[in-house]
Amino acid sequence: MSPFEWLGLPEDADERAVKRAYAMRLRTTRPEDDPQGFQHLHAAYQSALAVCRASAAVPAQAVAQASHARDVPVAGAFDSVRHAPQAVPSPTPIASPAPAPRPAPSPVQAATARPREEPQPRFELEAFCTQAIHLAAQGDGEALLVWLKSQPALWSFRLKTTAGHELVRRLYRDVPPMPAACLHVLLRFFDLDHVHAGHDPLALQRLERRMRLAWELQPAHRDALDRRLQLGWEPPARALGPDWRSLLRSSLSSGAKPVRTKRCLQRLQRPFHGWQGIAAGLFPRRIGEMEAFIGQLAGAHPEDLPPSIPREQLRFWTEAADTRHFGAARLLAGIGKLLLVTALALPLGALLTLGLLDSGSATASPYLPLLLGLAPATAGLLWLALHYFRIMDNWHSRAEPLPARWPRLRLALVPGLCAIGAAGALALPPPYLWLRLPVLFAALWLGLRRYWRRHDETGLYLNPTLMRIGLLVLLFTTGSPALVMGGAAMLAWADDLRRHRGRLRLDAASQESSRPGR
Amino acid sequence: MIVGIDLGTTHSLIGAYAGQGAQLFPNALGDCLTPSVVSVDEEGLVLVGQAARDRLISHPASTVAAFKRWMGTPRETVLAGRSFRPEELSAMVLRSLLADAEAALGEKVSEAVISVPAYFSDAQRKATRAAGELAGIRVERLINEPTAAALAYGLRERPDGARFLVFDLGGGTFDVSVLEMFDGVIEVHASAGDNFLGGEDFLDALETACLADLRLDAQALDAQQRGQLRRRLEAAKRGLTANAVASIEYALGAQALAWQIDEERFAKLTEPLVQRMRAPLERAMRDARLQPEQLDEIVLVGGASRMPQVARLIARMFGRLPLRHVNPDQAIAQGACVAAGMKSRDQRLDEVILTDVCPYTLGTEVARRDDQGRPQRGFFAPIIHRNSVVPVSREETFWPISEGQSVLMLDVFQGESPLVANNIKLGQLELTLDPKRSIAENAVAVRFTYDVNGVLQVEAAVQATGRRYELVLEQNPGLLAPEEIRTRLAALAELKIHPREKQENLALLARAERLYEEHIQARDQLQNWIARFRSALETQDDILIREHRREFGQALDLLEGT
């Protein structure tokens, strides 16, 4: 039903007629007596008015386009929301900031047509924005506000709206360095810090972060940065993503020992070289320090640091500190660590051998230094294996809704390992039977971890320490540790499967991926 | 009979829609404006109005003013050993106003329409209703002050097809409304305001400057001395409306001080306050989607709008001079009377229909995924947008953020900031979801309904299960619970207010006591006069008292005039 039918009018009724009809119908549909009816009536009235205004604006718009269009009201973005039924395209012309708009025309002229072309003292929009950004970069919010308030041209409603939008557009385009306080002063003055201003708060937060970081990393504002870092790290917008653990860690460590801003910053601003990664491994504490520093500096958003920080450098330090993933950065640091250990172990072994030979001990073997040199290499291999095991463990025991690669392999891993163990019991000759134990132990570990990590919220809570102690006791009291381990792993796996059987069906049905933004 | 009440920060008025249209009732002293001041005297009796205002000088410890600013907060004021909440203080003003109305009407009044600033929050509106209940009346409707002023203006001028802006600068609050009137419909397009900006702030600015000039420390002055200073500055502020220069003379102990201020300096001192009025004006105009030249009139109401800075502000922003032919002190009360007449279905107001708006945005908290897919909490999702015409009912659909979520918390907020941390939390609703269902199936439809009286109702329905929830707004610390209102009502009923017929004598005595504090050289004489008047009162001879009162009043006039 068209809004005009609601009001009992022909489709070509004018604004005056719409208002009269609305007033007539309002007498029988008073807002306090008939809220439902009134809402329908008012919606119809608003839509009809919008249609009338749009059709009335068409001739005027033609004139406006002949000159040049400008000046979009701030409510524009919000109009379509307000008039939910039958949204009509807003009749306002699109903003084109290039020609500086003139202040409001006299009422008479606006009433007839709206050419708005009389000569007025020109307001230099470009110059104004440049000056405002320049003042904001000084960092003094108070002075900025005083300056803004003293701008006579901004007393005009229309001009102030245009200037505000142009300024924000330039901020997004250039990302000038600016402290957060100054951005807030600008937004507040132009009344752009509310829900209806049409700015995405996420984008605005990101803009604020980027401008603030760029400002703080300017050499002149080092003291502001120092002050903020000493006050401690503050979460920008309560993040609850998977990164909370590292955030928490960095916030805790920042409270304990303030990191040396200058040193860390220098390290971060150098261009990155491969040997530097190995060098970082030689000083293991450096990685933790840098992680804490980046956490303090940029919180959960290191990507918002200004381009003056080399990205490779940033990526190296964040990856090196992230124990849940294994990449080139960790490998480099690991190599560095190994080199250090080897370099220490080799002369130590040589000295020891020499000492033993000197004392004339018969048991001294000439292979000792070689063995001592091989030990770090073995340790390195074990370390690598452990890391990959941890990554596998993490992948295997991920909570169900989180995406994981190779879901079928994930499901079959524990039974597969148990099967290998069982096959070993049959195929291996008795002296090598112990070889199946590590495999079964891995199956047990993975199965229990999966069970525990996926149920800590909904199901029964198992204390991991108690669980491990119980397991060890069980192993040593019963005669067949292999059987116990395999059985326990399969039990845990089966129970986990039973609990998630609903999900299994769902996954099979479709890789349903509708994930609304809210 | 429904009465209309303007419960102001500095002054209050009462009236009704009767024989000759909106009619205001005078108080016992013959004045329509009753100061919103409450005082408790030595016998534990309550004084309201001019007498209490004079006691602000002579008995500052047992007198309180401007408590409307604390409405909706749990702040308590101690007067003569008993603590009062702002609702109770307002209730006492209401009681005194009702006594005046009953004396004028000759019948019991039990219902009222009370005006509140358009930008009053939910808590402040509820507190005003509670004040009405504590005064023993039913509050039929709360009407926004600028809307009330527009009603009074619109009915008198009948500006058909006109759009106008009401600029309401009262003692403590600032409101702007943009309205349109056509065919008997008064339609509010937008309202905006500042709840902590009013004439009192201008007085504060003046006081700060004066104390700095005279090298006085505000902490070193006692309450009595400050009260005296403020009273004189208030007179100077009023003087600056008409004259270019105003001066005060002030005796501090034996020290005689004099201070002078001209209009220019006053304008400079209050520049920050004037700047604060720009934002609400701009916002109201923008929300109404109007340009200054599309407005037909600008109507100034509220006593503080008489200041020259206000006219200058309007001239700068709108390029025209404001309209002044409404009585800024009485317009709101008259509008409240008209609203009361509409409420009681007066035949003459049958043609008039008023539609108002909800001045602030109401919505809920949502989490959003940022560009890296991480969920971020704390964003405000509006459901009822500000300046929607009331009554309004809107529905929005929300989804749980993660798979397998079993609980969804629905927080209800009021405010304009895109981050809920800067908004006011009104309540919370906890919904149970089925964790086995997918995100899309667990959609929740949330409906907000805001009625004519500003009462918000929140409903939520989980679409998969069809379970419905309704929000009972939690009692936040600024509000009184219904049972507490009942106990406080009983306690307040025990408190005696001086009978109306004694008001005139009391006001005269209070005035004499104030003059006693202010005029050191005439103290002996005043003491003598007060004693004589008291002894006359004790005779209980009406004729003698009236005669004495007349002479006493003339003598005080003479003293104050010199």
Question: Can you describe what's shown?
Answer:
The complex is a heterodimer of chains A (518) and B (562). Chain A is mainly α and 518 residues long. Chain A folds into five domains: 3-82, Helix Hairpins; 125-216, no CATH class; 219-322, no CATH class; 333-394, no CATH class; 397-507, no CATH class. Chain A contains 23 helices and no strands. The model of chain A is unreliable at 66-119, 233-245, 253-257 and 510-518 (pLDDT under 50). With 562 residues, chain B is α+β, with helices and mostly antiparallel strands. Chain B folds into four domains: 2-158 and 326-351, ATPase, nucleotide binding domain (Nucleotidyltransferase, domain 5, 2-Layer Sandwich); 199-269, Actin, Chain A, domain 4 (Alpha-Beta Complex), CATH 3.90.640.10; 360-463, Substrate Binding Domain Of DNAk, Chain A, domain 1, CATH 2.60.34.10; 500-561. In chain B, strands 1, 2, 3, 4, 10 and 11 form a six-stranded mixed sheet that branches. A five-stranded mixed sheet of chain B has the order 17-12-13-14-18. In chain B, β8 and β9 (82-84) form a beta hairpin. The chains are: A mainly alpha (518), B alpha+beta (562). At the A-B interface, α2, α3, α4, α5 and α8 of A face α8, β20, β21, β22 and β23 of B.
Beta strands of chain B, count: 28
The class by helix and strand makeup of chain A works out as mainly alpha
Query: What is the C-level CATH assignment of the largest domain in chain B?
Result: Alpha Beta
Largest sheet of chain A: none
Q: In angstroms, what separates the terminal alpha carbons of chain B?
A: 46 Å
Q: Compute the number of structural domains of chain A.
A: 5
Radius of gyration of chain A: 35 Å
| Class from secondary-structure proportions of chain B | alpha+beta
Helix content of chain A: 55-70%
Q: Quick one: biggest sheet of chain B?
A: 6 strands, mixed
How does the overall form of chain B come out from the CA principal axes?
Answer: globular
CATH architecture of the largest domain in chain B: 2-Layer Sandwich
Strand content of chain B: 25-35%
Any idea what the CATH superfamily of the largest domain in chain B is called?
Answer: ATPase, nucleotide binding domain
Largest interface: A-B, 65 and 68 residues
Which geometry of chain A do the CA atoms define?
A: flat
Beta-strand level of the residues of chain A, as a percent range? under 5%
Let me know the number of strands of chain A: 0
Unreliable parts of chain B:
none
